[in-house]
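cron nightly-structures :: item 1 of 1
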Amino acid sequence: MRTIILETIINAPIERVFDLARSIDLHKLSTKGTNEEAIAGKTSGLIELGETVTWRAKHFGIYQNLCVVVTDYKKPYLFVDKMTKGAFSSMKHIHRFEGIKDNKTRMIDRFTFEAPLGFVGKIVESLFLESYMRKFLTEKNKELKTVAEGNEWQEILK
């Protein structure tokens, strides 16, 4: 099992950042490289407590489905999504938000995952899966930051 922790400072209010992080539409935009598409459950708008979304994406040249459910939600400070079906043995993503001075937000991602296949999966995690997931999440966060700090957020959150 691996855990990736990322911290991103965003020059935007906490409520905006929280909503953008829950946006199915922004998720699709920020993951163009993997052709992510919401195919079941909540497929647009803002995901809420108890709702599910099934993502279809291309990773490592293979299309895969990942279904997650929001299991915890404290607006605008926290939401947690957990995998219910997908390629991982387990996956949990804790999204935390802290308002900081000058109307900025600290967004903290804690992404914990475990590859299938036992010992072989642990080797895969170590050799490349952890770095792949770190890069994927970092790129996604860069896009969220760009949108939150510009004017595009108004179109996404309308």
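cron nightly-structures :: done
The chain has one domain: 2-156.
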